[in-house]
Amino acid sequence: TQSTGLADKLQPPFFIAHRGGAARYPEHSMEAYDADAKAGFPIEQDVQLLKDGTPVIIHDSTADRTMTGHGKVKDLTLAQWEKMRIKPIKPGGKPVKPLQLKEVLDKFGGKHLLVPEIKSKDAKNALIESIVKRDLQRDVIVQSFYYEAAVAAAAKDIPTLWLSSDAPSDDKFKAAKSDGITYWGYDESLPPDAVKRAVHAGLKPVAWTVNTVGDARRQFKAGAVGVFTNNPWKLSKAHYG
Ligand code: G3P
Ligand code: CA
């Protein structure tokens, strides 16, 4: 097992390309990921399973909003997924192929920092096994709203970001730290006091989804080490004191 990797080199302030950088490219498209890799931004993936257990990259639990097809992701066959395309976000744009987790790991693994999220609970084992099989434990940051999923990744020596919608208690922050979790992901609307308490417990706060320079400044000042943003190109150009 590698002892250090891309995740260990990450320096604050950092800008994770949320859904690949959805301000400029179709969500989770290879076009988005290529642009992120070129610019050196950590790239987010939302990971869910198809009906046959294939891990794929899509945010919503249904195909309807972002894809040319319809239906619940967990009910789609691989053949249906392969036939669907990601809708363009600009008039006249071409629909593009959706991505499987393995395509992303094979292309970027060990070369660019990936930040996959265990989006559906049942994707936990497939995601962790895919990372361990490729010896990419230190080249990714695994995130999840499911605490047990985050702890399971941490147990494999994978740097882990636990997401929560509410402000956890000090005891919960302390438990997360002692369970091996490195980062705490939080909604930018939570009070700065929660960010300070996370830092005090030894966690590194990362805010989502931060899309203006002013909002990023506020989060870094409160103690965030990084942000998820739809526009890392814009936010990374600003100065943060
Ligand atoms: O994973 C961080 C952030 O993306 C959480 O919100 O709904 O965009 O996955 P969501
Ligand atoms: Ca996400």
UniProtKB/TrEMBL annotation:
It comes from the Bacteria. It comes from Spelaeicoccus albus. This is Glycerophosphoryl diester phosphodiesterase. GO terms for biological process: lipid metabolic process. The lineage of its organism: Bacteria, Bacillati, Actinomycetota, Actinomycetes, Micrococcales. InterPro entries: GP_PDE_dom, PLC-like_Pdiesterase_TIM-brl. GO terms for molecular function: phosphoric diester hydrolase activity. Residues 13-239 form the GP-PDE domain. Pfam families: GDPD.
